[in-house]
Known about the structure:
The chain has helices spanning 18-40, 42-48, 73-89, 104-109. By secondary structure, the protein is an all-alpha fold. It has 2 domains: 1-66, no CATH class; 73-121, no CATH class.
Amino acid sequence: xxxxxxxxxxxxxxxxxxxxxxxxxxxxxxxxxxxxxxxxxxxxxxxxxxxxxxxxxxxxxxxxxxxxxxxxxxxxxxxxxxxxxxxxxxxxxxxxxxxxxxxxxxxxxxxxxxxxxxxxxxxxx
Length: 125
C-alpha cells in the first residue's frame, strides 16, 4: 500500500523476539529511505517531520504496530487473502496480482514477484 505495509511472519525458531524481528525490518528501511528522500523527494520529509531534535523524521508510525497471532491454516489463509485484496479494495488495481508490491502473483501463480511467500512453512504438525 502507498502508506502502509502488511507483513505476515512465521518465525523459524520456537523462541524468538518479535521486537527484534521488527527492528531488523524497520530500522534499515527507515535508515535508507530518509536519506534517499533528502536527495530525491525533500517534500516527502515534511510528512515525516516529528518536531523534535531527535529523531527529526519518523518513517514508521509511532508504537508497536498492529500485531495479531494466528494459529491455524484457515486463519493464516484468511489474512493472506485480506492482505492480497487490500489494493483492490482501495481501487489501486483491478486484480491482487497486479499490485507491484504484493505477493499475490507469486502466491497464486508462482509468478516472479518482488514479494514472496514461503508456502512450505504453512503446514502444522
